[in-house]
Amino acid sequence: MGVERSILQRPDVHHSKVTAISLTESTELGTLYTADEVTALAGLAKKHGLAVHMDGARFANAAAALSSTGVRPADLTWRAGVDVLCLGGTKNGMVSTEAVVFFNPQLASDFAYRVKQGGQLASKQRFASAQWVGMLERGAWLRHAAHANAIARRLANALRSTPRLRLVTEPEANAVFVEMPVELATALQRAGWHIVPFFGSGTYRLMGSWSATPELIDRFIGSLAACVHTLGWA
Fold first, then answer.
1. How are beta strands 20-24 and 51-56 bridged, if at all?
2. Is 100 in the same domain as 23?
3. Rounded CA gap, 218 and 133, in Å?
4. What is the pLDDT of residues 48-95, one digit of tens each?
5. Same-domain check for residues 12 and 72
């Protein structure tokens, strides 16, 4: 396994000392780790005495997507062996706040000091943190994420039938990656849409947002169709 090879390479002072495995859920490619995959990677980490960190900037999107299969948020985190979760708020409708959840309390030692040293202890932070009460108690964090995922599916379905476009991967959460000719991307930018290459020229990432409306997606699809027609590709 490539992960284990990375853990075992150069165990001396001339190489960075590995202390943790960090997983991103959902991933930067918009794909998801299943509960079994998280469990397997966490087991590998424990085998080598490493902690497991989950970068969950879009964890809510993953949890919402996998909920239809009976997977609970706990199945993707502490039950699977995750020690620390960075639970995203700003990409899910909150303002300037993320939550760091320690499932292994020992790793929280001196965390308050590290927050202060990192310049992340804001004045009156309790007011910013209060957002989490409403988001978690009322289930808004999962509703927002499920909406963003649905917006991404709506967008992907339209792109799938557009000439000269190809989905790089099937969207599993709220990210849509599409190969698009530069001429079409330029035409969309001129029409007022802000899109930029993600993996170099020709591939673009379009995100379903918690606040996007179906009407907004329909406007984008309409602009896309008009640009395709202008280019003579229809």
1. parallel
2. yes
3. 33
4. 999 999 999 999 999 999 999 999 999 999 999 999 999 999 999 999
5. yes
